[in-house]
Design a protein that fits this description.
alpha+beta, disordered C terminus, 11 helices, single chain, 461 residues, disordered N terminus
Length: 461
């Protein structure tokens, strides 16, 4: 009888271990890590062409953060947030190539987003015509960019090393401090009783919760330029303050901010630290509200899809146009025109298209659409009309190469539609088919990811 009892106990323990192993492997796993990326030296700051000297210290630290997830079948992905203006293609490609070599992650499994703070550092091979950097300053920028690359690769590895069973929930909140800057005059905003759109006030929220109920990570987003501050101190601007507020409220959690389609949206009024804090606290409050209510739990199934489509560029400027611009312009406009004229005189080929990144992560039944560049809000509105208003839409992802205007903005012109390509060093504006190419590219990618349309009459496929 004693031997039977021992065998029964051992069998029960063995069965319990099997059940535990099955339950652990059948759910989500996640890991999170973060690292300070504040420059140690006073580099030039990215974002405003009117700045005339390097940084003068910090308001608060800049961060890179990584949230890795693994579904029940072992499929993995990583979401990386950075307090940077934008990660350019060459740096993004190197980071993703190294993550492929080190962790066997494809580009479909890596989402690299920038908050677009205008109080972060200049990066190598980005916005090269804006800043009048001397050779020593260029070397400092190159050195910082190399260190940043190593930091992000190590960060993701560290997050993968901390994988543990979790549950994942999503929801959408609302915050209304974004203002469409093309359709509202900042100087007279205080006299307006109504704001003109278009706008997308959504605050997408993802909660990652440990098996014991403790919060591991809070990923959230908003579509609005982090341009409250314009002085010479490092800062994450309002997204930085929002992340700090959430980590103060949930001290065991890491808060990660992801920029949406905010290229034509500004926080207004602006230009004071108090306003940056206010908007950060306002955004954090919207996230807290979502976390405090019932959220949608996601089934542990992950699908990833990625592609790059060729976006056509319009005809390059003529010699006459460039010569006139050199004579009449100054600062970065003149430097851009001189570079373009030199290429023209040396019979160098101008770019005729650009490889534009599109990506979809589908966690359970929650799609996350991410697109490159400075994405205007109309893309978020269109994608939500097609795929449903609960989807998450991110811009500034995987490569920030230029503004991405809608057909309407391209036709209207202005900074986002006609002149911003100078800032990024492109030879010309985008071709008129940019919007249809991007939307149809996302529709095709959604088919691969298993994301269904809720409305099929808006786009002619």
């Amino acid at each position: 009888m004693k031997e039977i009892l021992i065998l029964t106990v051992l069998a029960s323990a063995f069965f319990a271990n099997i059940v535990y192993a099955q339950s652990s492997s059948e759910g989500w796993k996640a890991g999170v890590a973060k690292v300070i990326i504040t420059p140690q030296q006073n580099l030039w700051m990215a974002g405003y062409g009117a700045r005339d000297h390097p940084a003068e210290g910090k308001l608060h630290d800049l961060w890179a953060k990584a949230l890795v997830i693994e579904d029940a079948s072992g499929q993995r992905a990583v979401l990386i947030s950075t307090d940077l203006l934008g990660v350019p293609k060459k740096l993004s490609d190197r980071i993703r190539d190294r993550l492929n070599e080190k962790l066997n992650l494809t580009r479909a499994q890596i989402l690299l987003n920038s908050s677009h703070t205008h109080s972060g550092p200049v990066l190598e091979e980005s916005l090269s015509d804006i800043y009048p950097l001397n050779e020593a300053q260029l070397n400092e920028v190159a050195g910082y960019s190399a260190v940043l690359e190593d930091q992000i690769v190590h960060l993701v590895s560290e997050a993968f090393a901390s994988l543990e069973p979790v549950k994942i929930f999503t929801g959408n909140g609302t915050s209304r401090f974004q203002v469409n800057r093309r359709n509202n005059n900042a100087a007279t905003l205080h006299m307006q009783t109504d704001l003109n759109g278009p706008n997308d006030y959504a605050v997408p929220v993802m909660k990652v919760q440990k098996e014991g109920g403790e919060m591991m990570a809070i990923a959230f987003g908003y579509a609005c330029h982090p341009t409250v501050l314009s002085f010479y101190q490092w800062s994450g601007d309002y997204p930085g303050f929002a992340q700090m507020e959430l980590e103060k409220r949930y001290p065991d959690a890491t808060a990660l901010f992801f920029q949406g389609a905010g290229a034509d949206q500004n926080p207004l009024p602006r230009r004071t630290v108090a306003l940056a804090k206010q908007y950060g606290q306002t955004l954090a409050a919207a996230v807290v509200r979502v976390l405090s209510e019932e959220m949608k739990e996601l089934a542990p199934h992950l699908t990833t899809a990625y592609t790059e489509i060729a976006l056509s560029l319009d005809s390059p400027p003529t010699k006459e146009t460039l010569t006139k611009m050199i004579d009449e312009s100054s600062s970065y406009q003149k430097r851009w025109a001189q570079k373009m004229l030199s290429k023209l005189e040396h019979d160098e080929a101008f770019e005729s298209s650009y490889p534009y990144p599109l990506q979809i992560l589908k966690l359970g039944d929650q799609p996350i659409f991410s697109l490159g560049g400075e994405l205007v809000v109309e893309y978020s509105i269109l994608l939500k009309q097609i795929f449903g208003h609960e989807i998450f839409v991110l811009g500034y992802s995987n490569d920030v190469m230029a503004y991405i205007p809608s057909t309407t903005i391209l036709r209207e012109g202005g900074y986002e539609g006609a002149s911003s390509q100078i800032v990024y060093g492109l030879p010309s504006t985008w071709s008129p088919d940019i919007e249809s190419n991007i939307i149809n590219g996302m529709i095709e990618l959604a088919k691969q990811a298993g994301v269904k349309k809720v409305e099929s009459k808006l786009i002619n496929e």
